[in-house]
Structures are given as structure tokens and as C-alpha cells.
Amino acid sequence: MAFYSNFNSLLSISVPYSGFSLYKESFLTPHPTFSLYKTPFLCNSISTFYLRNISVDKTPVLCNSLSLFNTSKCSLKERFYKQKPDKRAYELNSEVSPHRAVSAVRLLRIEEGGAFADQLGWRENEMVYVERTLGFRVRELDDRNIRLVTEIVGGAVRWRRYLDFLIGSLCSNAETFRGMEPLLLQILRIGVYEIVKLEMPPYAVVDENVTLAKNALRPGAGNFVNAILRKLLSQKERNLLPVPEIEGTERTQARALATLYSHPVWMVRRWINHFGKEEAVRLMNWNNSEPSFSLRANGRKGITRTDLVLRLETLKVPHEPSLHMDDFVQVKTGMQIVIQKGLLKDGLCAVQDESAGLVVSVVDPKPGESIVDCCAAPGGKALFMASYLQGQGKVIAIDINKGRLQVLWEAAKLQDVDDVIRTVHADLRDFAAENSLKADKVLLDAPCSGLGVLSKRADLRWNRRLEDLEQLKDLQDELLDAASMLVRPGGVLVYSTCSIDPEENADRVAAFLLRHPEFTVSPVDKFVPNDFVTEEGFFLSNPVRHSLDGSFAARLIHSFN
Ligand SMILES: C[S@@+](CC[C@H](N)C(=O)[O-])C[C@H]1O[C@@H](n2cnc3c(N)ncnc32)[C@H](O)[C@@H]1O
């Protein structure tokens, strides 16, 4: 049995305080369109929290999962009520440091699945969440504040496991840490990250985070933050910060490394297994470093790399030309300025990692060709391929996700390549079964673990599970089979991922070739620099070796008969 919830409906749930996370997860897993609306409030050890439905469609809410909460200890308002427009004008609180307040709320939303850690810049509606969560207004953020939010949020997400290890070691017992309310934990993570990793002036960090906790929660929360951060400072000043011991069995060593370098244990074990301990540590260091971004000059709009460099110089954005791709420029800092000055909005350039550009080099698109991009959205590679066609030929961009496909289409218009792009909203497997289309070139940029892009996608490491990899492998095989049906005799099939995991890459290609003897490997050495070519003739960019995102591509040729 189900009842229905509308957009913006709120559901309130009261549970024993210590079980907050468990109850919340039990509800959110089967109901992904809900997210935590407000920090839970605590009264007599009962925590009441609100979940908001963010789906625009009516969402069925299953009574089975509701009954999860119907134990003797907890109560649930099994009634939705429409959220009233919030007409309250929140009062300005000028005591609270605005970038810390915004960072804490953004961190909270990332953990609840309502925001992404790789968000650059500022979204107009973000202050609404901040005010609702904190119950007051904070001062306007200037450019420096916005940069700090990006840095603190990215860092606190990357270092989450290590920060929690330190915070846990400073709590009087494990229960105190486990039962901590979410906003309080985020404030502590910010404080610990600022002291330990950013080495910011420590007493200011303590004062500012205590003020935030007092105002956003209650005076007792401020005292708690004060106690934890002061203990941490004292340990740091005496060089006594706890360090996980890397000793014992392979498993315990992997656990300690996972804490020290802040990654999930299963990932560390897998990388030690595939690449060895030293390479795994180098990879984790890369993932924890501040990401740099690359811009691709849009030749279709007549913009050369020299033009782009001139614009970046005028804007005083530090940059370096790419060593591997003629149209690309690396930008270490200052992406905020690039966004604000409209370079992306005007379609003059696009944010694209060189590793993604090199995958397009492996496809080698030429004017007049028909190209199918099987998993095309949000469109980085499809748009770059389209720019090579110079108005002749076509790129058929297929994707199962309508919203992301719309993003691709809007970008195609901005970048002036919409004349050669056609979008198709479909499951590739159905499309291949129902269409007799045969293209010159087919790119399958498959859904993957994304383990090659963890420096840019800071929260991804915490969202991936080992089981996901197994499921992805099956999907990748199915999509490869489907993509192969769209290649003409003598045509090219490129399989790519943004993963460095051999099981998603070379192993998938080997399994495909066993099922499809009509395809053979065409080595990629004619298309990318030798340094990126593996022994089997595949393309592989390695974050540690090339200082780029990790990605993989295999070029396969269909026989003529
Ligand atoms: C790695 S992303 C593609 C990135 C894209 N090529 C780019 O350069 O921006 C994988 C895409 O596969 C799409 N996808 C997943 N399963 C699919 C399916 N069965 N059929 C078509 N697209 C699918 C996802 O929606 C996602 O947009």
C-alpha cells in the first residue's frame, strides 16, 4: 500500500536520538526523491527530523518502509502537509562567519545527497537552504568567501574519514561520536580541517566555529566544539596527533592507509591488489589534491588557443597550455572568474579534462562522417567531436537520461555545433535492437565507477560501493554488445571509461572480443602520444603519471564481412 506525496511536501519523523542516521537511511534508500529538510531538533532524547520531497511528480510512499518507524520507541506523522511558503524574513546574524555557515550547510546537503562536492561557484537558491537550516541570515559572500567555501567543502569531503578519525579520538566515547547531530559534525569537520590541513590561525578557527555552533544549534553545542578543537590544538602543538598504525595483516594495513589517506577500505585494498602499495598511496595523494581544470578553446566559434590565452591573461587567470592537446589550456585557480566573465556561457570555451579530449583523438572524427555517441550526456565528448565535423556529417547523441541530454543540447546551441548534432532519448540497448543504423564511428563512453576522476569528484569515493562495480561490469558488457550493432563493416568502435580499474577497461574489451570475433584491436599510437599507449595498444591516462584524470579507451575495427 502506498500514499502519495507532492513536490515540497514535508514529512516529519521522530525517532530515538541515537538511531537518527539509521532511521533516516531506512527511509531515504527506498525514497530517493526525499532529502533532509532541516537539521533534526532534539527533545528528551527524541530527535525529530523533516524530509522534503523534491520530486515534481507525485511520489508514492510505501507503507512498508513507513512501518519501519512504527516501533514502540518512535513516532511518525503519517500525514503529509503542504509546506507553506516561508514568508519569514530571517534576521541577519553578523557574528557568524558567512563562508563557514555556508560550507556547513553545503556539507550537510552533500551528505544527504542534495548537492555535489564538485560544485564550482555559487547557486542563487543556495542561501535559501542556508537560512532555513540555520534559522538566520548571514552576511553576503564576496569572491574570497566563495573561493573559501569551494576549498573547505572539497577538502572536508575528501578528508572525511581522516577528520572523523581525529574527531572520534577526541570524543569521550564512541557513542558520543556516533550519535552526534549532523550539523554539529559538519562544523567540527570544518574546524579540524582548517586546523590540521589548511593550517589556518588556530584560535580564530576555534572562535569562529564555536560561534557558528552556538548560533546555529545551541550554547551547549558551542561548548562541545570548543572542547574538541582545543584538545586537538593542544595535541597538534605537542606533535601528538593520533596516527593510524600501518601494521599487521593486509586487511588491517589497508584499513590504516584508508584512514590516513581518507578513502574507503575496499578501494584501498583493490588498488594495492592491482597497482601495489606505493602506487596506491600516490593515487590517493592525487585524489586528495586540489583539482585543476582544463578549458578547450571552441574552434567552431573561431576561438583558437591563442585567443583563449589572451582572454585569460586579460582576466589575470593563471594558466598553462596543455602539453598533450593543441586546443586545451590548464587552469589551476580562477575558474570562478572564467565562469563570472561568461566565457563558458558565451560558448567560447568548454570545461573539459585533457584525458577526455584524448579519448576524442582516439575516435578521430572527420568532416562528413556519421558518428554515434552511445552514452553522450552531458556531452563533453559529443560536442568536441561535433566541432571536428566543421558542419559536415552528424553526431547522433543517445542517452537514457533526458535531463542530461537537454544540458547537452543547450550546450550544443551555445557552442554553435547544433547543426551537426541530433539527440536521441533512449536506452541504447533498445535503440540498437530497434534501428538498422550503421555509422562510420561509434563511441561508447560507458557508465563506470569514475575511479579515475576522484580528485574532481570529491564525494564520489564515499558514494561508490564494491557491489556497484560488479553491476557496472554487466551493464558495460550489455552496452558494448548494443554499441557494436551500430558500427558499419570496416567502421570503428571506441570503448571508453573514466576509470583506471582494469576490470572495467581491458578486461571488458577482452571479454567483448571473445564474444565478437568480427572486431579486432586497432592500436591507438597514431592518435595519442606514446606515453599514453598501453602494451595492448589501448589509451590509458594515469593520474599519478600524467597529472590528468584517469581514463581509458580501446579502438576496435569491424571487419568488412
Ligand atoms: C560517463 S557518462 C557519459 C559522459 C559523456 N560521454 C560526456 O563526455 O559528457 C555515462 C552516460 O551513460 C548514460 N547511460 C547509462 N545507461 C545507459 C543506457 N542504457 N543507454 C543510454 N545511456 C545510458 C548515463 O545517463 C550517462 O549520461
From TrEMBL:
**Mind telling me which PROSITE patterns this protein's record contains?**
SAM_MT_RSMB_NOP
Protein origin, superkingdom: Eukaryota
Q: Which residues form a coiled coil?
A: none
Main localisation = cytoplasm
Give me the residues that bind S-adenosyl-L-methionine, please. Answer: C375, A376, A377, P378, G379, G380, K381, D399, D427, D445
Provide the catalytic activity annotation.
Answer: cytidine(967) in 16S rRNA + S-adenosyl-L-methionine = 5-methylcytidine(967) in 16S rRNA + S-adenosyl-L-homocysteine + H(+)
**In its UniProt record, which GO terms are filed under biological process?**
regulation of DNA-templated transcription; RNA methylation
Signal sequence range: none
Q: What UniProt keywords are attached to this protein's entry?
A: Cytoplasm, Methyltransferase, RNA-binding, rRNA processing, S-adenosyl-L-methionine, Transferase
What is the annotated localization of this protein? Answer: Cytoplasm
Family under the similarity heading = Belongs to the class I-like SAM-binding methyltransferase superfamily. RsmB/NOP family.
Which NCBIfam families does the entry mention? PRK14902.1, rsmB
What is the recorded name of this protein? Answer: 16S rRNA (cytosine(967)-C(5))-methyltransferase
